[in-house]
Every structure is written in structure tokens, then in C-alpha cells.
Specification:
The protein has 72 residues and is mostly helical. It has a domain of 27 residues. Helices cover 51% and strands 0% of the residues. The longest helix is centred in the C-terminal third of the chain and has 26 residues. It is extended. 0% of the residues are buried.
Length: 72
């Protein structure tokens, strides 16, 4: 359409140029998880911990009948 206009070249695999982050150790992942349950002062937020546990139990109660059917 525009013969005088130069086209930009594109890399075939642009995602290969990105650096990958180093895999995190299990200890690092555990400390990050615990940090999610701390409040702004640095103390454990029991309400947030309880709410997350309750949500996990609710999901388990919904999914467990289906898992039981798959095991049969």
C-alpha cells in the first residue's frame, strides 16, 4: 500500500527475549504466604486467616462430592 514506507522487523519468538525469574524455594513461598496474613503493623491478622480458611472449606465442601464420584 505504501511502497516507500519501511516495515519493522519482528522477532519470530518475542517471548524468548524475556528473562525468567529464578524459581522460588519452598521456604520463600511459605514466608510470602504467611506475610499475606499480616496486617500493616506486622501482626497476624486472625480475621483474614479465618476468612480464608472458611472460604477454603466452602470450596472443599462443594468439590468433594464430585471427587468422590470420580474415585468410584
Amino acid at each position: 500500500m505504501f511502497p516507500e514506507r519501511r516495515r519493522r522487523s519482528r522477532a519470530l519468538f518475542p517471548h524468548q527475549n524475556r528473562r525468567r525469574s529464578a524459581p522460588k524455594s519452598r521456604f520463600h513461598a511459605a514466608t510470602e504466604t504467611i506475610a499475606d496474613f499480616r496486617n500493616s503493623v506486622g501482626q497476624m491478622d486472625i480475621e483474614k486467616l479465618y476468612a480464608t480458611g472458611k472460604q477454603a472449606m466452602d470450596v472443599y465442601k462443594q468439590v468433594s462430592p464430585y471427587i468422590a464420584k470420580l474415585k468410584k
